[in-house]
Hints:
Helix content: 25-40%
Number of strands: 11
CATH superfamily of the largest domain: Response regulator
Largest sheet: 5 strands, parallel
Number of domains: 2
Number of helices: 6
Radius of gyration: 20 Å
Strand content: 15-25%
Structural class: alpha/beta
Shape: elongated
CATH topology of the largest domain: Rossmann fold
Amino acid sequence: MKNNILVFGTKHFNNSLDEIKEYFTFSLIFYDEHTFSKQSTKKISLVLVDSDVCGDKTVLSLINKLNNKPLLFLGKRSISKNNKFISTAELLLPVSIVEISRMVINLITTHKFSQNSSISIKEYLVDKNERLIKKKTLSVAITEREIQLIELLFNAEEPLSKNIILKTIWKYADDADTHTIETHIYRLRKKISDKFKDENFIINSKAGYTI
Length: 211
């Protein structure tokens, strides 16, 4: 399966990449304001950005929403002097297809390795090794089950019902029911609220639970 790369750029930049995309081992998805909202960002492995569009407020806003993805800036000018992004790498043109491919694969591999030990969610970092949720200088301890809950809700593309959570995490264990889920979510919410004063980390609606 190819990795999906979301591309932000000028028309010329996009057209240039479009002409050579068959040489890449990953799929390029060119940003379009009419289709972007339909594209699941969780299926995006990396964000490729033409450095010339970094001054576009709309593009900047969208990129910032994707700051849990590795970012690769490609262009004729460097963004290093005004780097407002959490995780970036950049290549200055002219550059070969081989170099771009190598950088993309390296960034995706590094990101996937990092994801195995931590998850970036909103303003938080979930450290699975230390079993902590961190935000700036604050942190709170969480259990292995709470980590499973957070990962499940974060990776879901829509709110999850109690029954789906029960089936996925508890595997219908004899000692588990929907009250078990409510209790675990209540305790997790309370930890977040007490430590970070955040009442909306986990949202509950008629459709189910979501992050």
